[in-house]
TrEMBL record:
Pfam families: APH. GO terms for molecular function: transferase activity. Keywords: Transferase. Residues 25-264 form the Aminoglycoside phosphotransferase domain. It comes from the Bacteria. This is Phosphotransferase family enzyme. Gene3D superfamilies: 3.90.1200.10.
Length: 368
């Protein structure tokens, strides 16, 4: 860590209301967007642990609104947790205010920083160790939906505009095909046909939102296992973290993105698509956990559309990978030739397998 960066970290620490004197800090976690540090402060004999983060304002271009979203949601959750007899210091994120009472600070270079209380005795896992992890993940994100069911989602700012607006993603894709700036369209004619054959279905969820059939909800929009803290003693989901993408959206998209990521039998970028399929046992255990966590807070239309949420999120992700391939791999980081094309084919193979197993997917939702 260079002297300049250390200086900025120290500057941010001095601007935030941490208890005690800073003793040490070190990089923490596996996130790739923000710079995250575990900070230790000491006040006499007592140690205080914190998370210190530099918000990546190139990705999140409106950090002030982003922090307003997080502050609103975590304050709401805190009240719910207290009313239910829970521990508000472990079951939601707690923002450390700046010395002048804000939810963030800016350093002399214009970087945005924030602090959270560190949650001890809990761990985030990058991969599912056993089926119960996936069940706990589903239960946690379902519980998150239930806790925030009464929150006015329309008051939240879209931190990434049209993030899960599948029709908009489709229009961007069509433009990429038409412009073909890298001359790659002829290499992916089969994939382009796959998209266009399903184009009419792409707007199904957003049309239901416009009609009022699906309600606007507070959504997390990054429902991976490693955004849940698992209690080290009980093994149960404790706290949802990484709230940067908290936005107004659809509950079925949070459900669907978890299935896309967690119930695939292969890696997201597996070159051999014969290894790709939807694991119905994992789909079932997540669905069971999610609906148990929701505890009846979803409407019948939302429950009926859960399989479509899984399909749309997988389809949309494949469309985004294919769009980036056509545009020259400018958004998603690649580590080999045709990396985005491999990712595309994996997503589309998963969509195709979901279509084969559609009756089973619907039956599992009905079961729970």
């Amino acid at each position: 860590m260079g002297d300049a960066q250390c200086g900025k970290i120290r500057e941010a620490i001095d601007l935030l209301s941490f208890e005690g004197e800073p003793i040490s800090w070190e990089r923490y976690g596996s996130g790739h967007i923000n710079d995250t540090f575990r900070l230790v402060c000491r006040d006499g004999e007592k140690e205080h642990l914190y998370i210190l983060q530099r918000i990546n304002h190139e990705i999140f271009t409106d950090p002030v609104s982003l922090m307003r979203n997080i502050a609103g949601v975590t304050s709401f959750l805190r009240e719910k947790i207290i009313a239910q007899g829970g521990d508000p210091y472990r079951e939601t994120l707690n923002i450390v205010k700046s010395r002048d009472g804000k939810d963030y600070v800016t350093d002399s270079d214009g970087n945005y920083w924030r602090g959270y209380l560190f949650i001890s005795g809990a761990t985030c896992f990058d991969k599912v160790r056993n089926p119960d992890d996936f069940y706990q993940s589903g239960k946690a994100f379902g519980h998150f939906q239930r806790q925030l069911a009464e929150y006015p989602a329309e008051e939240l700012t879209e931190t990434i505009v049209n993030f899960h607006n599948t029709p908009v993603r489709l229009e961007t894709f069509k433009k990429a095909v038409e412009e073909d700036v890298c001359g790659r369209a002829h290499l992916v004619e089969e994939e382009i046909k796959f998209v266009m054959d399903r184009a009419d279905e792409a707007g199904a969820a957003m049309n239901m939102l416009k009609e009022g059939t699906l309600p606007l909800r507070v959504t997390h929009n990054d429902t991976k296992l490693n955004n849940i803290m698992i209690d080290d003693v009980t093994g149960e989901a404790l706290c949802i973290i990484d709230l940067d993408t908290i936005m107004p959206g659809l509950s079925i998209f949070d459900f669907g993105d978890s299935i896309r990521f967690g119930a695939n039998t292969a890696d997201e970028d597996e070159p051999d698509v014969s290894l790709v399929s939807l694991s119905l046992p994992l789909y079932e255990i997540y669905t069971k956990g999610f609906l148990e966590g929701c505890q009846g807070s979803l409407t019948q239309a939302e429950r009926d559309m859960l399989p479509m949420g899984a399909k749309l999120m997988t389809f949309e992700c494949g469309v985004r990978f294919l769009t980036d391939f056509l545009q020259g791999d400018t958004y998603f980081r690649i580590s080999r030739e045709n990396h985005n094309l491999d990712r595309t084919r994996t997503q589309f193979a998963l969509v195709a397998d979901m279509e084969k197993k559609w009756a089973d997917m619907e039956a599992i939702v009905c079961k729970y």
